[in-house]
């Protein structure tokens, strides 16, 4: 029961921080006059020089990227499960991801400057619709495989019930038939779809996009090690992020 409570808490924390990220990118807390107006363009900290602020921001992205990628590697999983029960490994990963992402939001340092701004109402509405579609895609893509397995709940539930884990298999469900990483595609849309691309937002988008590229390289290396030629064939046929664009 303790494992179920921990996994549920980790799941709740990650979803709350992800919701905070959604607001962080829209600037809504600042617009609405929230008590903590933390957004990609507003901070609770005293302003810093652009060079120092940019260095801190890149450092925050790097720390998040290291946590998110290193903990997902098989070698780290083997080390972690030497003292954490295997059925809790994924829940621990999700739990650690929450403070890592929250640190990015809380300590982000805004940069001066605006790269582009839309003053056209239709274009603004279209970009916000695209932003929402990005979130919808990334959430839907988790259910196209196994949402609760991905977030570590199924493993704990099976352990509590004493049921064996299903045989792992390679699936190409729904959006995965058109792009190999629809979750990452959704993330990229949310990073870039905005009617107001400030210098801060641009740095965030570039930094997180770079992390996604590195994450894909690491993840696909592990998938090839697991599925071999079957994944190589899939990778040769299906684009990574954009339908019809093989790279």
Short description:
This protein has 247 residues and is mainly alpha-helical. The chain is 66% helix and 3% strand.
Query: Outline, from the CA principal axes?
Result: globular
Write the element-wise H/E pattern from the N-terminal end onward: HHHHHEHHHHEHH
Give the CA-CA distance, first to last residue.
45 Å
Query: How can the largest sheet be summarized?
Result: 2 strands, antiparallel
DSSP summary: helix tally: 11
Q: Structural class given helices, strands, pairing?
A: mainly alpha
- By DSSP, the count of extended strands is 2
Estimated radius of gyration? 19 Å
| Mean pLDDT value | 89
Q: Based on the structure, what is the oligomeric state of the protein chains?
A: single chain
| Order of adjacent strands in the largest pleated sheet | 1-2
Beta-strand residue percentage: under 5%
Word description of this protein:
The chain has helices at 2-26, 28-31, 50-70, 74-80, 89-107, 121-145, 147-150, 153-161, 182-192, 199-227, 229-237; strands at residues 114-117, 196-198. It is mostly helical. It has one domain. A two-stranded antiparallel sheet has the order 1-2. It is globular, with a radius of gyration of 19 Å. The mean pLDDT is 89.
Please write out the topology.
Layout: H1 2-26, H2 28-31, H3 50-70, H4 74-80, H5 89-107, E1 114-117, H6 121-145, H7 147-150, H8 153-161, H9 182-192, E2 196-198, H10 199-227, H11 229-237
Antiparallel strand pairs: 1-2
Features:
single chain, 247 residues, mainly alpha, two-stranded antiparallel sheet, 3% strand
